[in-house]
FtsX-like permease family protein (Pontibacter akesuensis), 800 residues
Amino acid sequence: MMKMYFLTAFRSLLRNKSYSLLNIAGLALGITCSLLLFLVIQYQLSYDTFHSKADRIYRLNVSFTKIDFNTPASHFPLPAYLRSNGNLGFEHITQIYGDVGAQINIPAANGAPARKFLIEENIGFVDAAFFDVFDFDTGPVNVAPYFKDPNVVVLSQTLADKFFPDGDAVGSIIKYNNEYNLKVVSVMPDMPGNTEFPFQLLVSLETVRPSFPTDWGNLSSNHQTFVVLPEKVSAATAEVRLNDFVQQFSTEEKARRSQQYLLQPLNDIHYNPKFYGGFAQTPISREMIVAMAIVGVVLLLTACINFINLATAQAIKRAREVGVRKVLGSSKWQIVFQFLCETFFIVFFASFLSVILSELALPYLNELLDLKISFNLLQDPVLLLFLVVQTLVVTLFAGFYPAFILSSFQPITALKSKVSMQKFGDVSIRQVLVVLQFTICQVLIICTFLVNEQMSYFRNKALGFDKEAVVLVTLPREAGLKIQPLRQELLNNPAIREISFASDAPSSMNNSYGNFYFNHAANDVDFQIQKKFVDMHFFELFDMKFLAGGKYTISDSIHYMVINDTLRRRLGLESPEEAIGKNISLGGGEISGPIAGVVSDFHQGPLQIEIEPLLLTANPGDYTTLSAKIDMGQKQEALKHLEQVWETVYPADVFSYEFLDESIAAFYDEEARQNTLFKIFSIIAIFIGCLGLYGLVAFMAAQRTKEVGIRKVMGASVANIAILFSKEFINLVLIAFVLAVPVSYYLMDLWLQDYTYRIAIEYWPFILAGVATLLIALITMSAKAIQAALANPVLSLKSD
């Protein structure tokens, strides 16, 4: 019996090739999208789940509740103090210092010349306990004992192949940032992509520990501490115990600012931007994961609606077949099962095609989203189960209603081909589904337009400084003594217009915060400021506007300051002029001086972040960035001169640069990726909708062949007939637009709340999306409608 059902279903699909192909194409696209999104979601949810103690690993974060400041940093002395007090009940404690990018020098050896590399990979300075907490594969050697000593390193396989192409990495010496000679003790497989510890070099923490601050006043997000809780010990209990312990070392000022430690579970780090910073990967919110899941379901739903619409339209043509089956004794449920078998064949072929499409598309998706997702259907039982369950669910969801409609035809009515589709009042189920399908399409298109607008706003908003034609170069550690000769040498070439040295660019992700005292007050101010150390040329190079006072000059006796207007307002000063001459003292008073100027606010980071109180002052010992304003008409000459002077002044260091406007654009890489992804899904959604629309018009044309012939004989033009076929569906698309507008507005208003600086939602993206959808639908319908209208009326009238 089952064999007969499937054989009959297969033959039916072969008889209706166009119907089968349209359905397979629509379902294949929908299933492919859902499969790819499932892979992305599965990958995002897998971060650091492979560690055996993952459910008991916590990061110690610091929160300043009164000033609303949070950091993943921990105080540098904390791990040592915990260990000296019996670990305070923690099973393991590990201290990690992360860095990004470094210069690696390979000394000459065995006849090979010396080489130098500038790498962009993540570097982790870790202690021996790191290997007790985390389960990373570090190669054939147990490296934990080595990490009790300084100057040892484990290389990833990729970097080992790069540094030592002959394969003799273990036992070799590499020089790190022209400062540390490190011995390679092992080569490890590349770290997996789904980890918050993407280190390609592991260096013993003992190498840099002597340079760590010994007081409790310093925090750096690059320095983090992780602990393993014993089983059956709650994080809340451990948190109370830890804070009681740390209070012993807190000053009154820190206590007043309500500084406390919070234990963050390892499985929360990748999804919580509140404590983002340091060496961790860019977080993805749980809301974004839910949004991707919803988009996957919506695209699959669109494909299912497509199937239902085509199947119910096809049902009219198969009415006689159903009538004959019922006359010959088939029951209603036998007919339902027969048509579900046909649906299963279509969904099975679509799923098979989607597996192929997913494997072909995955490399491009990985490149777009900067992920490392692999596709191993037979080796991934969860993925295989998802595909099987999805195939069955889609078969039932997409196939049951058309099968129920077909099985409900009365034999006599069906044999006379006088059946009609079920209606609610004057509205058919198919019309409702078309409206739903195009509502989904238009919501995606409107949202894509508005996301695109926000991205354009990011790119074009005035930042409060001139970012054009500025080249950034990272300075070596010993740069301080050579910056003035370097500046003079660089300015000898007219292609370079100005040079400035600073701790970082005006807008960057490398921000430093601290407490301060205002105007010789006894206590520090109850909020933190961002601080940048910049020379006096910084303001001219970036064309910053002063509201009062001006830039400072370098003085051996007076340490002048410049503040931004936000800091002036936070200090309660009525006007910029009132700030001039007031004293600011940083931290413990090591840097103190009068305010020389108040600069107009400028954005110090991504536009997601509000402009913060900022202080700028000179401090050559902290200059790590060279900014060069160049003549873009002589771009190559300027870059060549920069490199030549660099090689002369810093012969042991690799020259590398980036343009400031490109580094600022990189702030929004994640949003740009998401925008591109949703553009693709919007195109796919509208394409699936058009497939269904084309099929519906085709079936309508076949149904009304004689009517078209009569109309043509009576003098109807091709345009009249095309309008006849298109009118019904145009109305449905317009209704869908009316429904899509409020839904889109609500979703985008919700999304934009995450951005401090954002666009106002205007009407034109809605109009543009509606017009675009209508035009696409008209082109789709017209193609088949015109074909029907051009048919010979004589042949049309002869058709049965």
Remarks:
- The two ends are 34 Å apart (CA to CA).
